[in-house]
Amino acid sequence: MKTPFLVALAAAIPVALAAQAAPGACTHRGTAEQIAKRPSPLDSAQVAVAGGTIKVCYGRPSLRGRTMIGGENPYGQPWRLGANEPTRLYVPFAAEVAGVRVEPGTYSLYVVPTATAWEVHVNKAVDRWGIPIDEKVMAQDVGKGTVPVETLAQPVEELTMQLVAGPPAELVVEWATVRVRIPITKTG
Questions:
Q1: Is residue 29 in a domain?
Q2: 9 pLDDT above the threshold of 70
Q3: Which burial class, exposed, middle or buried, applies to 61 when counting CB atoms under 10 A from its CB (0-12, 13-18, 19+)?
């Protein structure tokens, strides 16, 4: 029989480990077995820019016949930009992300999509589950910027992110028939 103390301790270990991880490390809640059973796999991308490495960590949901952006993730409503934990972006230097000035560190990203542009929110709340994006989460926004939507000729089944060296560097997000390019510019 598990005591409440042991249950609480087991739940706290992944969060405590995340807090102790190296800068830019992808951290996730749960055991390796629990993470392996998730329907949306984890992924990351990185790129060397201006003497440092920018990294993004995210969950990769699949469409599976669903209409996600503008459907299950309605236009005008916050979306965690992935699955599971929030999408996290690590920048090793002072930068602008979608025009938002940030200091070196790790930030979560979420978006408010429309058919023609995405409002990109850069947020300090990184050690949380991806949803809900409520007033408590929004209160930790560093800022927001807007990027245009490009339409793809061929749909992308699984959410895909890649970091591309610039200048400016870009976080390129593709899913369904949508592509957005989030600029990342070193400022310091």
A1: no
A2: no
A3: buried
60 DSSP 8-state letter: -
CB 89 within 8 A of CB 56: yes
| CA dist., res. 130 & res. 163, Å (int) | 21
Predicted structure pTM score: 0.83
Is residue 53 a part of any domain in this protein?
A: yes
Tokens for 9?
């301790």
Q: Token pair 């930030």 is at which residue?
A: 107
Q: Where are the beta strands (DSSP E) in the chain?
A: 42-49, 52-59, 87-91, 95-97, 100-102, 105-113, 117-123, 141-164, 169-186
Q: Which domain holds residue 66?
A: 37-186
Q: How far is CA 115 from CA 10, 74, 106, 155, in A?
A: 43, 10, 28, 15
Which two three-digit tokens encode residue 153? 């000729």
What are the pLDDT digits (tens) for 30-76?
A: 677 766 676 677 889 999 998 899 999 999 998 988 888 888 889 99
- How many domains are there within the chain? 1
Query: Is residue 171, in this structure, part of any structural domain at all?
Result: yes
Residue 6 lies inside a defined structural domain of this protein:
no
Angle (CA) 30 97 182, round 5°: 85
